[in-house]
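@channel sequence for tomorrow's demo:
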Amino acid sequence: MEAADFRLLLEHSGDVHWMADATGRLLYVSPAAARRLGCTEQEALARAQALAAPLLADLPARLERFRQGDDSRRTARREAELDAIPVEIESTLVERGGALHLVGVVRDISARREFELQQKKFASMLSHEFRTPLSTIDGAIQRLEMTAHDADEATRKRYRKIQTSVDRLLAMLDEYLSPDRLAAIGRQRSEDGIAPLQMLEAAATQARARRPQVTVRDAGLPAWLRADPHGMRMCIDLLLDNAIKYSPADSPVELLGGKAAEGGVEFAVVDHGPAIPEAELGHVFDKGFRGSAAVGIPGSGLGLYMTKAVVDVHGGTVTVENLPESGKKFRIWLPRGV
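structure tokens (generated this afternoon):
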């Protein structure tokens, strides 16, 4: 791409691109700053400098750590408020003319914040709607267990099974539908991200308590990937749970990870259960959808919906396909830069 093409992109981009020297002095801000501030480009540079001053206060310490060999400080990301607008600021240290400079971008994340707010409200509503009947069942089964002194062993076993199921559902609410948990996914990502293979191995180890035949295959995963650790682990756990529930008890489940053919990174969960009917394939990620195979299988129809919501926040995609031989493949794709 020619320099003129880059200039054209910067002129029409909605994000504010910028460059600063090692002292924190802004050398350049893209035309988007002037449009957002409602002033000339020269005035925008001065106003941007005033807004950026407190945000660049840690630059000297960051430069010193970088010069001492701490390469993890080359790129940083943070969220802040600029003129009462929530923004995400990403910056990278680069060498230019023999000197270190800081280049970056400022993105308006108002839409993301609104999405997170709605997500938190949804989680609160859903958690409440589930907990109310579960609390009733929980209290009733505890009373039955306390008063069933003359019940036979088969009846007591059924009571224990009901109590165990209620406890598991309440634990899932705490694990997956906590409003704070859902709202935090994708909002503040760890700079170090995740070790993808380690994440897959940990998820597989946990899943083997239910399906010993869970295997992991590494097809060229990077050592580190910038992503929300809790969010991505939740996605893998939910896909594994789905595969275990909808495939024969003695069949294998494969957990794959590697470089995607189109670029980026992919994770896949492959099972050997029945295919999804073609008419249902386009709805499996819909909120509350449960297919024809779900009859008699406990569930809420929210696991795949939540998986898609988390992957969307990361800028990726999640898809499903029926395999020619047998089984299904759920695939998460993430851009390499997330």
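heads up for whoever presents: The chain is about 45% helix and 20% strand.
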